[in-house]
Amino acid sequence: MCGRTACTLAPNEVSRACTYRDRTGQRRQPRWRDGDADKYRPSYNKSPQSMSPVLLSQRHFDENAPVDECVLASMRWGLVPAWFKENDPSKMHYSTNNCRSENILEKKSYKYPLTKGQRCVILADGFYEWKRQEKNKQPFFIYFPQTKGSSQQKTEDHGDPTTSARNKVNSETACPAEEASLDLTEEGEAPGEWTGWRLLTMAGVFDCWTPPDGGEPLYTYSVITVNASQNLQDIHHRMPAVLDGEEEVRRWLNFGEVKSLDALKLLQSKNILTFHPVSSLVNNSRNNSPECLQPVDLGSKKEPKPTASSKKMMNWLTSSSPSKRKESNPCKSKEEQEFKAETKRKSTGALQQWLQVANKKQRTK
Description:
By secondary structure, this protein is an alpha+beta fold.
């Protein structure tokens, strides 16, 4: 199953990380739907009912859009069927956070969206899963191995889990802002490829529910799951259906040319992910700090505790929208000045930026 994720990239970075080639071979950068970028908040610890970045076909909103044009949207985790008659989605008496690929055509909540082509890709740095032990559960962070080069290539090198995690924090593979910038042209074309953190691309279905008494439509999604791959079976028996590479993402989203039954063939257990153990801090969804996904030594009895700097990061993430954070008041303390300068200097994702500063401070103490 999949019950917790992390997505730490800012809205513009999510867009750059999702660049793709259209049918003419041109690289395109998907735009956010109007207003949706402000609904998404980066987080180290996303739980169901939160808003997450989702990639889908623009044809769901504009029937005249090119068949291969993609768009980013913020959707709430936990599918609310369009036919749900209550005015409050919280009155649903069953969970729709995940749906099993094996019986997706047997459940009304999922069959209707799927047969209407409402397929989407949920984006995240990775997801958390818990391994049952005698007295407790050990959480793990699971993600695509990070290799230098295009983030959308098929995974070839699974790499060392600890090394991959360390790369997310300290490596030079994520290029500086001036090198990674992929500003859109008027036609939506992106001039280069994203070389930062490769986002995990999970298959999902979505629906649009409108309150019976009227109100703003609510877009929600469910993560499709499959049997766990061989290297993850010791942690849990289920895993998200992962789409590996641009071609699989393209086929999953192209509901006009790729019919549902053919698209479902893409949902296989893929032995392509890597992982590392993390602190039990992630057990509480209210904990939203870099420590949630830092590797821990299972042989050590010491448990990382939230620091003053990580609490400040949590406040930074939750205090305002990403766009407003860029316009924050001048920093008063030396610590805040260092953080602000580092944030401006690099555009390597919230996780990389913050931990690099935190590590620097620890060395100077």
